[in-house]
Model the fold of this input.
Amino acid sequence: MQKKRPDGEEMRQWQVAWDEGDHADKVALCKKYGIGYETGRHWRSDSGPAPKEPSNRMSLAELLGSRPAVNLDFVCFDIETSNLRADFSIMLSACIKPYGQKPIVFRADDYPSWTEDRSDDCQITKAIAVELRQHAIVIGHYSQKFDIPFIRAKMLKHGLDPLPPMFGIDTWRIAKNNFAVSSRRLKNLANYFDVGDKEGVDGDLWLKAAFNGDKKAMDAIVEHNIIDVEVLEKLACISFPFLKSMPKL
Done:
């Protein structure tokens, strides 16, 4: 006796079995359902395409159309602080420069806490961290000894989530391992390799900014900060051939 044509999940399974089977399998399937081979062909042609199984794989179109959690790029990063130790200083400014783009500038006197309580650098620290965590590779100069540990200490102090897994490139370390020069400071490397003019540090500016809230002093510090990341980007470009590995931060 001929069976009723299946529907729902049973039809989906029947379609899959028909599509994946050879001729002998199709004959056996028809016999199981008590129908002839030609009837089986009509069932299959009339039922349309078989629904696809759910898959954890993303198609190329889906992958390209998805929004990544981070930008798969690199940024140059430099901070200016009132002292070299996080527990004895405040964040004055920072620059994050995506390659080939203008620096993103953070300055402490842009935040309300600057006039209310300059010792509280939570707001600028949070803003820096929010932008920094969007990028995959962070380039700095002596950054793995200073900039990154400093921002991490400030983030922990202010109850912010740690930075995600990121990679770091330190041009100071590249210079240390590859260049026999008298000084590996950014200023000396920039001058020697002719990748930009970097001025020296005037300590009075940092004191006036941190203790007096002097706007002109802050302007000068921010300008210094911007020059640093611009020079750093050029130094990084000529240092890449000497990069042997890219450690996690």
